[in-house]
Design goal:
This protein has three domains: 76 residues, no CATH class; 134 residues, no CATH class; 54 residues, no CATH class. α1 crosses α3 and α4 packs parallel to α6. It has nine helices and nine strands.
Amino acid sequence: MDRNREYTGQGHTDYGERGKTLVEGLTMRDICDCYVRGVILASGHVVPELYTEADKGEKAELTRNDLYGWDSTQTDPGAIQQNMMCEVEKMMGIFPNLPEPPKKGDRMKLQEQFEEIEKLVEAKNQKAINDYLLANDMPNFIYELAGYKEIREKKVTKIGINVLKVCEKWIPSFKKRPTKKNVEEIITYNNSYFPTKDHIMFFYTYSYGDGSGVEGADTLVDIISSERISFNKEDLVPELKKMKELYEPREGHIKCHYCDRQRLPKDIHQKTIISRMYSNCESPLRNYCNDRPCASYDQMGSEG
């Protein structure tokens, strides 16, 4: 790592023009503090509560002890470096230390800078997707319970990243004339943007029996954690059976007006709901579960 080597990186990076800046006015402890904040700012997806504190800069109530007790192996080392150097610039009062802005009439440089950072963000998305696909097959279908009647089959069309869950901040695309401030914002955004498999989502299409259809997306986290969505149809069979036992109409049973469960007559009581939506402020008698607060919930939902 020869100190005299050329600065061959892009101008806005620490290996380009930006990296030529001498560090001035900081103590060794200041640099250590920047490292602590840099590590945590690169780990917002792991320790979001510490990320919020680290984002306060010099006012953050953190110590080096906050680097322990959580899984730092999920953090990108390159992201630590980027965030640490941004913290150094902030303490020096020069953040964001970007190269000189283009002269009037030469705005393509800003456009190029903005598009380069967009590419870095997209590369992070693709890496998270590739890491997932290295360990898992691309699913063809997502299966979901449609009430108690059937297991719905949704065809997977593509895999993507739920970007709104990756970072609290959101930078829209600028296809025309981004300003220097826009470039600064997307650089800051990129430094806080670290997608993982927890942010993966699958887009799907589903066709109804009448020929109409719908498009949507399910997150990987929801698919893994839910008992009503799965990549494997057989996993939902026990839950479908349970749903049928609770909700499928059958002789000798009465449906609860609120939760729709099928109950024996001895497990049902009748009650009216008081609400201004009725002409006499009182609903007809309705059937509710004896052992559940269905009537109370229905009453609360009718008030307002």
